Amino acid sequence: MEILFYRYNSICEPDVLEVFRGFGVTVLTEEAEMTDKHITPRQCAEKLAGWLTSHTFAFVFSVNFFPAISYVCNRFRVPYVCWSVDSPVPELFSNALKGAWNRVFLFDRAQYEYFRPVNPDCIFYLPLATNAKRWEDVVLHMTEEDFKKYGADVSFVGSLYTEKCRYDALPRQSAGGADAAGSGRGLSAFTQGFVDGLIEAQLRVYGCNFIADSLPQRVIDEIADADPDFYEGEDTCGDVRRYLTAHQYIGMKLAAIERERTLNRLAERFRVALYTRSDVSRLRNVDCRGSVRTLTEMPKVFHASRINLNMTMRPIETGLSLRVWDVLGCGGFLLTNYQAELPDYFEIGHDLETYSSMEELEEKVRYYLSHEEERIEIAVNGYEKTVKRHTYEARIAEMIRILSQTDAAP
């Protein structure tokens, strides 16, 4: 079997590529976008058409959905297989998603249930995974100096989303109804107050995301109209404005607030280490250690830290982020916010721990810092279950099984 792997430098690509080749699949790669981030959809389509004209592929694969690839594959009647690893993904609103030759795998069940009606026979659910072998190669060679350098009572690795928050960049209206440029396009006092209140309400609720259902059309339109780069156009389907306003704008703002508040609150009572490239000027008492290299340093943090904190960004409504799988795959103890899909894969209190309020988070941090043997036992349980059931090999095997049962399958 020969496939074409379209790459754009996603962190998941090397692991998926390794598994395909380990399964005996011949993989050719298109890598133009890895070096040229300004490549246009038309250029992408032309490159792909060239490949499909000169080769016979079982399918074309990418991490995340590319409408241009979908359109070309459907024209050539070649299956287009993709695995979405992010949320939100604006490109899923493209009419290209309706293509009969698509085979789209989504990791968040809520995301899957939202988009599946667009193309019921061609959209599937597949959770994320981890490369336990890769992490093992790093963890087994850790030294005492590594444990001292990367160890902490509580560690968090990730963005604070301050630099990714598009909501903060939107213009605001003055008392007279105009923005700073005098155009009248911007967020009114009503919209700003409504969003602030909605965020405060959502921050108090875990396991249920009600932002999208709570938005009045006035708020949606103000936010969408305030951003000239809002993702919409003639090639979109569905209520793209509501979905992206809730997830890409308000959801990112909520994530920034939640992460700042959580870290500051924990740091008042515990020793908290943070690894991030984000602006940390609003944090207090947090041991800000800069960034870590994903493949060589991050697993050392996960393995050496007594507690690894995970805060799932709310646009991931029910699913498990990559951080969950990677912490467990490194043998780390994980304390994460509750997500609806967690009980589908892990036993809470046996494989990992969860929290559903700030009070519960503090209580469990305090408990597990003083119950070392129990904490280590849970970390071992989580590791063993993850390496047995939730590796990239297991996920790609499931993907191929699903593909083999669909019409026009590779």
Structure explained in plain terms:
This protein has 410 residues and is an alpha/beta fold. It has two domains: 2-129 and 392-404, Response regulator (Rossmann fold, 3-Layer(aba) Sandwich), CATH 3.40.50; 132-389, Glycogen Phosphorylase B (Rossmann fold, 3-Layer(aba) Sandwich), CATH 3.40.50. The chain contains 17 helices and twelve strands. The protein has helices spanning 13-22, 32-35, 41-54, 67-76, 109-115, 132-139, 144-150, 189-203, 211-214, 217-226, 240-267, 298-304, 322-329, 342-345, 358-369, 372-389, 392-404; strands at 2-6, 26-30, 59-63, 80-84, 102-106, 123-125, 154-157, 272-275, 287-288, 307-310, 334-337, 353-355. The strands form two sheets. It has a six-stranded parallel β-sheet, sandwiched between helices. It has a six-stranded parallel β-sheet with strand order 9-8-7-10-11-12, sandwiched between helices. The radius of gyration is 22 Å and the shape is globular.
